[in-house]
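Narrative of accomplishments. A recurring question from our advisory board has been how the design workflow behaves on a single, concrete structure rather than in aggregate. To address it, we present the structure tokens for one chain from the evaluation set, followed by the sequence designed for it. No filtering or post-editing was applied between the two.
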């Protein structure tokens, strides 16, 4: 694994909490106060000013499945032995004085997968090493993921990546909608990546326990994803945003990356 610039990248990463208001499915989030006319808190800040659509990059270690309603690809709450990645198109209809805005997700398009974990090893005269075919498959997956990010960097106003990690009891679509809203109100200036782990536990007590264990399961995969994003050629900065249970996933992954670096 390449770590040559990771220490500098980690030093520039920021962690923030995001609180999501309850809203109807497919509803665009209300315009944040920082953009609200004369009361704007940040001068010259702006959301996207049109109905232009978004394309998000996703990385997940949820189990792939068929959507029960449409049969299209989706991802459930099961823990997958491999990490998948791809793109999600987001159709946005901005709010008007008379109508609330809409945010609709297209089905995800899977681009590639990392090898099934844990990666296999083999003995050599110099000790144990990862199997060469697994290493090659891993490097191929990293190159594909970084290719998706580079394509978006080419047209992004700021050559920076915003990464979002969701919290407890969020579905794959919940995570994508939150990232879509964030990316929209950031003015489409950044490359937007959503990291989604197998949350989906039901119930206040047992459901949270299941999701806590799923979040711990996901740390190794989220670490691989953050490393790949941060080492993409042309990325000048990475901004990490986590919510609720996702903050533990993020801080645990960052701790392990810092130890590596």
């Amino acid at each position: 694994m390449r770590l040559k610039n990771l220490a500098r990248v980690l030093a520039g990463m920021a962690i923030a909490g995001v609180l999501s208001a309850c809203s109807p499915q497919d509803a665009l989030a209300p315009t944040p106060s920082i953009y609200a006319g004369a009361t704007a808190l940040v001068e010259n800040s702006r959301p996207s000013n049109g109905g232009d659509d978004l394309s998000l990059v996703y990385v997940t270690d949820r189990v792939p499945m068929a959507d029960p309603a449409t049969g299209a690809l989706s991802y459930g709450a099961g823990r997958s032995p491999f990490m998948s990645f791809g793109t999600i198109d987001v159709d946005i209809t901005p709010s008007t004085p008379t109508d609330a805005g809409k945010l609709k997700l297209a089905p995800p398009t899977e681009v590639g997968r990392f090898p099934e974990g844990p990666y296999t090893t083999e003995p050599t005269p110099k000790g144990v090493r990862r199997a060469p075919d697994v290493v090659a498959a891993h490097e191929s997956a990293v190159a594909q993921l970084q290719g998706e990010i580079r394509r978006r960097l080419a047209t992004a106003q700021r050559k920076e990546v915003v990464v979002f990690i969701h919290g407890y009891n969020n579905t794959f679509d919940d995570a994508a909608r939150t990232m879509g809203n964030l990316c929209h109100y950031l003015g489409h200036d950044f490359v937007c990546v959503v990291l989604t782990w197998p949350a989906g536990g039901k119930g206040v007590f047992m459901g949270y326990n299941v999701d806590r264990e799923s979040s711990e399961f996901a740390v190794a995969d989220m670490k691989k994803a953050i490393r790949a994003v941060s080492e993409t050629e042309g990325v000048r900065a990475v901004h990490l945003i986590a919510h609720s249970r996702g903050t533990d996933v993020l801080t645990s992954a960052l701790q392990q990356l810092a130890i590596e670096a």
